[in-house]
Amino acid sequence: MKLRCDSVDTFPSPCSRCAKKGTFCEVDRNFTRERKRPQQASPDAMQVPTSLAPRNGALNAPFDIKPTAEGSNTDPSGSATPVDLPTVKNDNVKEYRIGNLSVPSAQVDMMFATFSAQFYPFLPAFPIHHIHPQVLWPDYELLFWAICNISARVCAPELVDVITLHLRSLINTTYTTHYIFRPFTSLTHVYALVLLCHWPLPHQTFQEDVSWTYAGIATHIALQIGLHRSAFTEEYTICKDGSQKYQARALTWLACVLVNQEAANLRGIPSTAAMDNLFLSSLLKVEHEDKNVSEMIKQARLLHALKGGIDKLGCVDSSEAHARHLVHRACEEVLASLLPEMMPWAKMTELVFLQAKLQLHSFLLSPDTPVKDQKDVIVPIYMVCIQTIQVIKSMLDSQKSHQYWPYFVHTSTISAAVALFKLTTCPYRDMIDEDTARNHVTDAYTILKTVTRVNRDVADRGIRLLDALSIMAKQETYSKELCIVKTRLGAGIFATALLEFKKWSRHQARQEKDEMPANGSMGNDIAFETFIELMTVDNLWDWGTWPELETAIPFPLDNGW
């Protein structure tokens, strides 16, 4: 006789048999349900009762789903949660207000058109047809004014200061909102912050640049809403039209990875955003019609390989310094293996590749690396810096759009020029062609002169730095060592030059202060002091700069610490 278990009727209480025996009630793993009866045997089962059918359209279902619709998988190129992308509104806005200031709609339309045509191709991580003032205003104000701020530097400079102040206030308040529950709003916040990292807010000193902070905020929001995780291949979705939404999420996270790694390389610290291989492979499966999107994916692949190399080289401590060149060679081969799949590539992608190589090479210039290994990397660094300046020079000659270049191009020019200048004064200068190196430093100086838009922007500060280095070389106050500063990402050629510049600038300031006339005038050369005081990397890991425990802590340390 076949017994029937009454667990279905008693759930969540245990079945009668288990309750009687006092045992834990659990369905066996080998249990299988009885197969459903075929449709031919129960023709009435598929008929919907008339009483349940909607009457006169009053109870319309939220989704129009056909009875025979099949479940579909999510697009593997995106994240797990879809995003509802809004459409252009029909209402015509005549003006947009920032406090007491009114900006005409015609001027805003011009700024959006400039952004879409000139700036957007460098970072196409957001659907272009949603970059419209009537879509973003007023619900997505942060992205709206971020786009206006970037474009106003070219077509409406009189509005830059006002929009910048408003943006800083918006970012401080936006970060505390419940962005997790508004997917498209959070996506616009992340993209706005990423844009302000690629084209930072106007600043006059290195430490005034808040792009690294904004990159961290953008990454944190993106992690909170799951942009970093691609969707599972068998994930259920109710409709098949979500590919555009998933792609928007995936590309937004890609932009976070790009700006994080670029900013981290400049500051000599590890990046805070990473990308797994599953996420990257899912993006490569999709054919992208926009070539700019394809180039951005190539750049992300290069920086992903660079981050892997940094993680490996960073694990080699001083006791294993003799093996550092082997790890470096393996990382360089991984980076080079990507080239066949990326050709042809754009100039910007080539520039990312060259800067990635320069970052890898810097690990072999650490003071604890054997001299032989340091010598082996001198010529590769020299070649990479030469190629970097040549690529930027060709971009300047062919595109004639330097006013739209991202911040990364300017910093790459400065770092390559400084590295070449250091190579011409280091003990290994006989290994390179000094005349060629000096000529390319001059080319970089000319490029910075051309791309300078306002006083004390990043290009102008780079010119001041190169001028000061040349004066230091003539005065023989310049160190002959190639690198005396070690950052978290290997030897810091750029940081070394800044540190020496800071010492020289302070010495010059003290001398001019002693010779200062009675009227208090100190001359024009002292302008270097303000620049270098803030355009430098703090030596955070130097224990000599940390406070003494006896003076910093007012109580004894014998209480179990």
From TrEMBL:
Checking Pfam families in the record gives: Fungal_trans
Tell me if rRNA processing is a UniProt keyword of this record: no
> Where is it mostly found?
nucleus
Query: Is Transcription one of the keywords?
Result: yes
Q: Output the Gene Ontology terms for molecular function.
A: DNA-binding transcription factor activity, RNA polymerase II-specific; transcription cis-regulatory region binding; zinc ion binding
CDD domains from the xrefs?
fungal_TF_MHR (cd12148)
Recorded GO cellular component terms are: nucleus
Where are the stretches annotated Disordered? 30-87
The subcellular location is: Nucleus
- Describe the location of the Xylanolytic transcriptional activator regulatory domain by residue ranges: 126-253
- Might you name a Gene Ontology BP term for this protein? DNA-templated transcription
Q: Which InterPro entries match?
A: prtT, XnlR_reg_dom, Zn2-C6_fun-type_DNA-bd_sf
Q: Which UniProt keywords apply?
A: DNA-binding, Nucleus, Transcription, Transcription regulation
Its signal peptide is: none
Q: Where is the composition biased (Polar residues)?
A: 70-80
Q: PANTHER family, alphabetically?
A: FINGER DOMAIN PROTEIN, PUTATIVE-RELATED, REGULATORY PROTEIN LEU3
Q: What is this protein called?
A: Xylanolytic transcriptional activator regulatory domain-containing protein
User: Which species does the entry assign this protein to?
Assistant: Bifiguratus adelaidae
